[in-house]
């Protein structure tokens, strides 16, 4: 038996009008080993325009499915599930025929190992979310029933669908009205930043605040095991017998990792024999079917008319002339056909035809107007719900900021911005409200940035740089790193090929220094002179080497890092008694006695992306991170707390920075010129 263990995260919101919409959510988790072999049973139903009796009937159907399924054999799972559906079809046919005015949507299925077997009636939401090769999130409508031709009205379940899922895939089953507020695309966007459980909680929270007359329900299913999903019972055979899926590519073609897509099988639940009707009943039924087909044809004609009218107005792809010619030809044919048929009718026949035409036009026009009113109402409800949620989230962020909980404030601000991106902009009222919300969020973001816009002043005399800090500036031509001890006793330079040179103040020239590294394949990236020693960073070997100053150069290096710290992406080094290492992703590691301790820098807002240099010294209480791509210098305490960031919005590219805390100044190298700016955070 597979170790596949699904997790269910459901949401349920009861509407204000139980007759307009009622949702049933049913999940059975097996309690015994025998039940576990049969898997997990689930069902979701939505009844619209129903009665308490109809809700009770649908509930009894679900309970019948559950009881019958678990009382059956543990082998041949799919065949037994189909047989259970066939029994329910025979029991439900009469009710469905007598209550066709009720709109019923049901999905019922079982999860056994990695296998999913389910059947649907109506148009419930059935989505699969999975990660592609590039780790991006994709989705697939695994039933493909929404928008298709409906099944026969007296057939509860017309076919069975089956397939397998992999660990970390997420299944979503939901009542149809959930799609009114959370479309497939919106659910995918929420899942990109939240877990399945958090997504279910978010959807329930938003739908509850809408206070709609509709009811909503759904469940996210995700595997909790890392074991590969396997197909058991007869599911494998079903997949081999899958219908042609050319219009829906399978998961193997999309992600290259799923053994078989969830696809529709050719095995269908048997069609039921019709109950004998009396002749008058057959006539009424045929008449109703004919009327339904006529209304559908009329609706299609009206839709075609309005689409052609749109092309006629906007002249899309220069098709206006074609539309006009088609209209003329169509009207001529219609008038000729109607004239011939109409003249052949009796007077009473002509009257009946006129009444039918007026009735069809009235019904079509009324239905269109009703749908437009409903769409506007739903859009307004969605806007109001999102606006309320954004304002609430923004208030929570501001409250967190008052209590100095910046981490929570940033989290809530990020949530509010994500909600703002989903806010409708259909009307001027909506756009104005969205702009006001955006201004408020921008003001809150400015507070969290701790931003200090800076306009440097150019120096006319580079000698204004403080003594002892000049050698920290940009490397000399031919060298990739330069470092000077504060008293000037050591000024070391690193060449691209890993050689080290020194500046001789006495001889006024640069001399090669003797130095060897513990690793033969050492590839030094940068160095720091401190306390008559030289510290060299070697990312290729995840190591820092310590060299003592000796006559003619430096001693053979000693390995400094003694733990398992990884420095493969290290970009900069600083020493103040401890050794600080900056990584390319903005992470910082502090080393004491060769043992590294990660320093949390998550408080920086916006997050660090590509910092290239880290600076501190024994006399400073700060860490300075230089990030030229975002044109900023980030200031942290030595415990990693975010204090400030200096930005240069109207300044050119900055090549290097020197910090002189005693003078409360920083010096910038840009385009061969030296500039100065105040250190305002001190």
Task: Characterize the structure shown.
Strands 2-3-4-5-8-11 form a 6-stranded antiparallel beta sheet. It is α+β, with helices and mostly antiparallel strands and about 675 residues long. The protein has 12 helices and 33 strands. The two termini are about 65 Å apart.
Task: Show the helix and strand layout.
Layout: E1 6-13, E2 21-28, H1 33-38, E3 40-48, H2 52-71, H3 77-98, E4 103-112, E5 115-121, E6 125-131, E7 137-141, E8 161-164, E9 170-174, H4 184-193, H5 196-210, E10 216-223, H6 235-240, H7 251-255, E11 263-264, H8 279-314, H9 320-343, H10 347-402, H11 406-421, H12 428-449, E12 451-453, E13 457-458, E14 481-484, E15 491-494, E16 500-504, E17 509-512, E18 526-530, E19 533-538, E20 543-550, E21 553-554, E22 558-559, E23 570-575, E24 579-583, E25 588-592, E26 595-599, E27 613-615, E28 622-627, E29 632-637, E30 642-647, E31 656-660, E32 665-670, E33 673-678
Parallel strand pairs: 12-30
Antiparallel strand pairs: 1-10, 2-3, 3-4, 4-5, 5-8, 6-7, 6-9, 8-11, 9-10, 13-33, 14-15, 15-16, 16-17, 18-19, 19-20, 20-21, 20-22, 23-24, 24-25, 25-26, 27-28, 28-29, 29-30, 31-32, 32-33
Which labels suit this protein?
35% helix, 5-stranded antiparallel β-sheet, 12 helices, 682 residues, 6-stranded antiparallel β-sheet, 33 strands, elongated, alpha+beta, 26% strand
Q: Summarize the biggest pleated sheet.
A: 6 strands, antiparallel
Q: Structural class, from helix and strand content? A: alpha+beta
**Radius of gyration over all CA atoms, rounded:** 36 Å
| Tally of helical runs | 12
């Amino acid at each position: 038996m597979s170790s596949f263990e699904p997790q269910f995260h459901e949401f349920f919101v009861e509407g204000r009008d139980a007759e307009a919409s009622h949702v049933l959510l049913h999940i059975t988790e097996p309690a015994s080993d025998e039940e576990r072999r049969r898997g997990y049973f689930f069902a979701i139903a939505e009844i619209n325009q129903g009665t308490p009796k109809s809700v009770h009937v649908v509930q009894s159907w679900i309970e019948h499915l559950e009881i019958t399924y678990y009382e059956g054999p543990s082998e041949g799972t799919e065949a037994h599930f189909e047989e259970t559906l066939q029994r329910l079809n025979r029991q439900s046919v009469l009710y469905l025929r007598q209550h066709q005015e009720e709109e019923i949507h049901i999905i019922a299925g079982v999860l056994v190992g990695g296998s999913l077997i389910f059947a649907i009636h109506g148009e419930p939401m059935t989505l699969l979310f999975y990660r592609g090769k590039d780790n991006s999130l994709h989705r697939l409508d695994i039933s493909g029933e929404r928008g298709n031709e409906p099944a026969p009205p007296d057939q509860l379940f017309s076919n069975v669908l089956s397939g397998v899922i992999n660990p970390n895939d997420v299944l979503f089953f939901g009542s149809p009205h959930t799609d009114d507020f959370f479309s497939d695309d919106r659910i995918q966007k929420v899942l990109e930043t939240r877990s399945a459980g958090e997504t279910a909680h978010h959807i329930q929270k938003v739908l509850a605040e809408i206070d709609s007359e509709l009811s909503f329900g759904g469940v996210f299913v995700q595997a909790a095991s890392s074991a590969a999903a396997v197909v058991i019972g007869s599911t494998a055979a079903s997949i081999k017998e899958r219908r042609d899926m050319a219009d829906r590519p399978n998961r193997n073609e999309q992600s290259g990792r799923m053994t078989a897509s969830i696809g529709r099988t050719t095995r269908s639940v048997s069609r039921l024999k019709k109950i004998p009707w009396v002749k008058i009943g057959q006539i009424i039924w045929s008449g109703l079917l004919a009327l339904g087909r006529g209304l559908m044809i009329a609706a299609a004609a009206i839709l075609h008319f309005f689409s052609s009218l749109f092309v006629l107005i906007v002249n899309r792809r220069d098709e206006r002339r074609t539309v006009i010619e088609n209209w003329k030809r169509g009207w001529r044919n219609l008038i000729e056909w109607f004239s011939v048929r109409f003249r052949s009718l009796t007077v009473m026949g002509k009257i009946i035809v006129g009444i039918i035409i007026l009735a069809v036009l009235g019904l079509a026009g009324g239905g269109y107007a009703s749908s437009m009113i409903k769409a506007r109402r739903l859009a307004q409800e969605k806007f109001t719900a999102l606006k309320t949620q954004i304002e609430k989230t923004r208030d929570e962020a501001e409250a967190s900021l008052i209590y100095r909980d910046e981490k929570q404030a940033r989290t809530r601000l990020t949530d509010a911005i994500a909600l703002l991106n989903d806010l409708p902009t259909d009307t001027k009222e909506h756009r104005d409200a969205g702009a006001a919300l955006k201004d408020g969020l921008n003001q809150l973001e400015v507070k969290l940035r701790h931003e200090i816009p800076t306009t440097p002043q150019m120096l006319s005399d580079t000698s204004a740089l403080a003594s002892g800090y000049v050698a920290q500036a940009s490397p000399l031509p031919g060298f990739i790193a330069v470092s000077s001890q504060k008293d000037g006793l050591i000024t070391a330079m690193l060449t691209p090929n890993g050689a080290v040179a020194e500046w001789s103040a006495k001889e006024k020239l640069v001399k090669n220094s003797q130095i060897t590294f513990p690793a033969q394949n050492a590839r030094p990236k940068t160095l720091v002179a401190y306390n008559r020693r030289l510290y060299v960073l070697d990312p290729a070997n995840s190591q820092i080497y310590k060299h003592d100053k000796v006559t003619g150069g430096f001693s053979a290096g000693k390995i400094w890092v003694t733990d398992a710290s990884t420095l493969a992406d290290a970009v900069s080094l600083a020493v103040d008694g401890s050794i600080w290492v900056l990584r390319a992703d903005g992470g910082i590691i502090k080393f004491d006695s060769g043992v590294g301790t990660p320093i949390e820098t998550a408080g920086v807002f916006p997050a660090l992306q590509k910092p290239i240099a880290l600076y501190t010294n024994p006399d400073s209480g700060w860490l300075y991170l230089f990030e030229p791509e975002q044109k900023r210098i980030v200031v942290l305490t030595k415990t990693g707390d975010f204090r400030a960031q200096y930005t240069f919005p109207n300044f050119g590219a900055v090549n290097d920075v020197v910090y002189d805390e005693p003078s409360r100044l920083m010096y910038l190298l840009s385009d061969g010129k030296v500039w100065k700016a105040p250190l305002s955070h001190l």
